[in-house]
Amino acid sequence: MKPLVLQRINELIDGYKLSKNAFANKINMEQTTVNNQLIGKRSVSIDLILNILLAFPEISSEWLLRGKGNMLIEGSKDNAEKLREFTVIVDKDGYLKLKQ
């Protein structure tokens, strides 16, 4: 039986309808490394977990690591959709700003 964390990672991949290659690219890891962990050839690394949480900020770390609560942080999907409506610009003073 696969470790429960690994099951949740596969649930995440399926939920986002990503190929294993697209998933590896999204979390900025080598596909071979990710595949070896996903099939259980290697144990799940802390790098994999951290990269998932960085690439998918709407994913609950509590859910991913311990299976507690919902996969998505409440309200995060709405916030993620709203953020896509903005563009990051640099103002005349060199500060980053969001422009709608």
Automatic annotation (TrEMBL):
Domain of life according to the entry: Bacteria
State one molecular function term (GO).
Answer: DNA binding
Q: Which InterPro entries match?
A: Lambda_DNA-bd_dom_sf
Could you identify this protein by its name?
A: XRE family transcriptional regulator
The organism of origin for this protein: Bacteroides clarus
